[in-house]
Amino acid sequence: MASSNASTSSTVSTATPTQVSFAKRADEVNSCKSDLNDIILDYLTIEGYPCAAEKFSKEANIKPRQVGEEIRSRHEIQNLIHRGMIQEAIEAVNNTDPEVLDRNPSLHFDLLRLQLIELIRAHNSNPISDITPALQFAADQLAPRAPTNSRFMEDMEKTMALLVFPPDKLDSSLANLLDPSLRKFVAENVNMAMLVSQKSRREASIRSLVRLRAWAEEKARSQKIELPPSMKLELDDKKQETTFLEPMAI
Q1: Where are the domains of the chain?
Q2: Residue ranges of the CTLH domain (predicted)?
Q3: Is the pLDDT of residue 88 over 90?
Q4: Which among 4, 10, 46, 128 is least buried, having the fewest CB atoms inside 10 angstroms?
């Protein structure tokens, strides 16, 4: 019996203590409030939320990253693109910095192509309307540029195919051209080009931090480090409050 008690005592004394849960360990990490404020202001500035950036910089007592007018112009241009007002967006870009599109012929072509798509979209919504404006625009704006780049030619041909097939008969590659996500994609590229022109970074720091976090999780799991089964960031939760963000029209 004594031998059994000794064995039990030995087992208890050498047992590994229960590890602290991942959530508790994460809570124990002290993040500097000023660093978090910098990340938030950086995001609002880079993504083009002028009112939010101005309000947050005042409340957090942080010096603004950009002149309000620079943020406001990018925000306005993104809004125009999201609303399908591409000609107005191009004019706004040229009024802000005439060299942006000259330095980025691919971006200029993407905007013009999106403008053609919007003309086709308008025609599809009213089939008895005149298709001539779309054809004329393609001939005047896209056709001269298409031969200079194989990607331009392919994109123009795919876009013109929207005129051949009924909207409900399009395959996925063509239907995607009419999806609002293309507006978002072009708007983001325009925003990045303008940021470069304004001597700013092309991307908010939080985006690189999210990629770094994903890489770290993948690395930890590959090395069998104990982690929760799921570690979602919940960045797409539309129910979360967006106190500072002015809406982006779509």
Answers
A1: 32-66+204-224, 69-199
A2: 70-127
A3: yes
A4: 128
